[in-house]
């Protein structure tokens, strides 16, 4: 079973405004609400790929009820920790460009934190745990490191999609997969990732530091996969970007969902790219049909000297 943790779920409120004017009253031309938060997105895509998944995380209030109801309709298992505060609302504003306003989210009590942590302690050998998204300020900032240690002690495959020192802190626990984008990778090494060679060079350093697989996503410029000693690049398929919210989460789901079925890192990498782009080309997250339509366009090449 693949478990996801979303410490700060959301309702993603997508609004489209034509001729947007700062400081004026603007009216929407389209609006829609989706359950959000990175782990929840991973679970939603995994379900569409046919993998068993359960979503963990903190949930509360009417907004939390919306998230739970939506996931129930999609027949996604959840085992959320109920909290006193309200699940946040994140605004995704489309005005010709994409602007995101992510809220801080509710306060999490020590008891709530303990409840979630004990769920992680109960996972079994061969389960997969995905940790992704921001950490609420009321939760210990080393939560990912603590959960990573529990996974490594109990033989659980760990996937982490975060950035900065939280990402660095989990490397000692040998995560199965991490997926920084090229900006996040650059920030870790105080540099700019300009091309696949840079992505391979710095992604490989994260492998040396403990990650088993590193996918560096580079938006429309493809992605790089670094594994023990080797690096590979893959292109993205052609298409019109409609909404990139959740594209990175779809890549994570595409990789681990395929790996769980095939144990083949190359088909998992192809599926990862196709899933990311299928989401970028859709208004909601990707569907299996859309992924399969894009899959033949993806080509993997070994990076020589990588
Ligand atoms: N212009 C594009 N054309 C095709 N695919 C794209 C494009 N932009 C993004 N994607 C898809 O989305 C994936 C993730 O993009 P990106 O590198 O921006 O990751 P991210 O920052 O984690 O994403 P997110 O927008 O979810 O935060 C890419 O690997 C690709 O599959
Ligand atoms: O505030 P965080 O936790 O960093 O990111 C939250 C978020 O932007 O990530 C998802 C897309 O990846 C959205 O569903 C959600 O709104």
TrEMBL record:
Carbohydrate kinase PfkB domain location: 8-284
Any one GO BP annotation for this protein: carbohydrate catabolic process
Pathway assigned in UniProt: Carbohydrate metabolism; D-tagatose 6-phosphate degradation; D-glyceraldehyde 3-phosphate and glycerone phosphate from D-tagatose 6-phosphate: step 1/2
Matching SUPFAM superfamilies: Ribokinase-like
GO molecular function, one term: 1-phosphofructokinase activity
InterPro entries: 1-PFruKinase, Carboh/pur_kinase_PfkB_CS, PfkB_dom, Ribokinase-like, Tagatose/fructose_Pkinase
NCBIfam families, per the entry: 1-PFK (TIGR03168), pfkB (TIGR03828)
Membership in a protein family: Belongs to the carbohydrate kinase pfkB family. Belongs to the carbohydrate kinase PfkB family. LacC subfamily.
Stated name of the protein: Tagatose-6-phosphate kinase
Name of the coding gene: pfkB
